[in-house]
């Protein structure tokens, strides 16, 4: 998925090709995607320069699921960051992805790109306490009381999800559905374990 300061756009990075990457970036920047890779590269470079120099709007580009980006795209990202900008950073790039994105960037072929990365942040997931607060907050937003789920269920949720918010959401949706089907008044650890079985979280 791509996000930009001018236009928001989403892209499934699991299937993206180099041509798709350029076309998506052209769409985000509002420039023509004609002329093949060379034409698109020049149009993108010119628009980034224009935004920085004339509009005073440096581009902030975030790529989600970046662990799926291939070597070709990562090499072209490096070229875009290096091309014709001297020592000035005309745009900021944020690569977001799962932990094995680090493994990809450590490969020798990506040494030049890795050297341009100034900030690294590794997200380790929510703590046990944060998971409990998150779940109770979401339940309260839905109009439910804290008493609908017991402490053991909250602890089990953290244990099985390792604090991953997406997994927490999926697990709690399943647990609430199971609890409703079984006419449970309180979501307990047993319901959480049943939801874990449904989700395949082991």
UniProtKB/TrEMBL annotation:
Superkingdom of the organism of origin: Bacteria
Single GO term (MF): ATP hydrolysis activity
Span of domain ORC1/DEAH AAA+ ATPase: 12-105
Gene3D superfamilies: P-loop containing nucleotide triphosphate hydrolases
InterPro entries registered for this protein in UniProt: AAA_22, ExeA_AAA_ATPase_DNA-bind, P-loop_NTPase
A Pfam family annotated for this UniProt entry: AAA_22
Protein name (record): ORC1/DEAH AAA+ ATPase domain-containing protein
């Amino acid at each position: 998925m791509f996000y930009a300061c001018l236009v928001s756009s989403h892209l499934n990075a699991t299937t993206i090709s180099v041509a798709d990457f350029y076309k998506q970036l052209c769409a985000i920047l509002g420039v023509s995607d004609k002329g093949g890779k060379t034409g698109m590269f020049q149009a993108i470079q010119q628009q980034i320069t224009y935004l920085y120099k004339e509009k005073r709007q440096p581009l902030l580009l975030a790529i989600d699921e970046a662990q799926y980006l291939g070597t070709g795209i990562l090499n072209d990202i490096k070229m875009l960051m290096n091309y014709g900008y001297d020592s000035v950073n005309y745009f900021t790039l944020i690569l977001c992805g799962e932990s094995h994105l680090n493994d990809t960037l450590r490969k020798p072929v990506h040494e030049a790109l890795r050297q341009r990365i100034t900030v690294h942040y590794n997200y380790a997931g929510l703590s046990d306490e944060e998971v409990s607060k998150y779940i109770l907050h979401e339940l309260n937003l839905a109009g439910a009381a804290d008493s609908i789920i017991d402490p053991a269920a909250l602890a089990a949720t953290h244990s099985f999800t390792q604090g991953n918010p997406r997994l927490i959401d999926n697990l709690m949706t399943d647990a609430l559905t199971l609890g409703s089907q079984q006419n449970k008044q309180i979501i307990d650890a047993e319901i959480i374990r049943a939801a874990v079985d449904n989700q395949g979280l082991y």
